[in-house]
Amino acid sequence: MGSNTVLASVKSPDIHRDIYEYIIAYGLGGSFWLGASDVAVEGDWHWMDGSRVARGTPYWAIHSSFTGWIQEPDGGAEENCLALDSSMKYYFNDLSCSLLHHAVCEERL
Asked: Cross-referenced CDD domains, in alphabetical order (predicted)?
């Protein structure tokens, strides 16, 4: 990666869709890190440029449990990094930062 390359910010449904379509078209597997976390303040998600991550749909995954539907992020203090999660159809999911995944990067202009 070049010195101007960072983990990507996904700030619109169109960009989210474009990345998803690229992953599917090229048969890429696994989950992908994006450039956001809530490390500084638990539950307060920010992109690397300091802007806030949009909450809810159409970005964050929803999954079911025995007690009902659960909206991501739901990992608490143990899951502080944001990924496009293959097990959640490439919606946002909070995961442990120690996991090994691919990355979606962008070049800063």
From this structure: CLECT (cd00037)
Q: Domains of the chain (ranges plus CATH)?
A: 5-107 (3.10.100.10)
> Could you tell me what percentage of the chain is helix, strand and coil, using 3-state DSSP and rounding each to the nearest 5?
15, 35, 50
Tracing tokens 């990355």 back to the chain, one arrives at 103
CA-to-CA distance for 92 and 33, rounded, in angstroms?
10
Distance CA 4, CA 28 (A): 24
CB atoms within 10 A of CB 32: 21
d(CA 76, CA 50): 20
pLDDT digits (tens, 9 = 90+) for 29-60: 999 999 999 999 999 999 999 999 999 889 99
| CA nearest neighbour of 19 among 6, 10, 27, 30 | 10
